[in-house]
Design a protein that fits this description.
By secondary structure, the chain is an all-beta fold. 0% of the residues lie in helices and 56% in strands. The protein contains no helices and eleven strands. The protein is globular.
Length: 117
Amino acid sequence: QVQLVESGGGLVQAGGSLRLSCAASGSIFGLLYMGWYRQAPGKQRELVATITNGGTTNYADSVKGRFTISRPNTQNTVYLQMSSLKPDDTAVYYCTLNRVLRPQTFWGQGTQVTVSS
């Protein structure tokens, strides 16, 4: 099994920055990618950003140019640097890990990000 522990959420004013962290432990052999999704009240969970084991990144259009996902030195920790935050970014942010072995997909417990106007 894999455990994902997130940290770094909180309350910030519009235009501010936050950095989320997600530490993975357990059997991550065959890692394909790690990433972040978010879910706002009354909305479906949506992709924010992902990074493959080879370092290829993918971002939702709504966060391109403002958010940066990273996994330094292929550590078992992934970061999401969020800048120029908007009230629409308010959501619970979930870390995810996907691997070759089954079960393939794991989720963290979520961390709340609230952006005030």
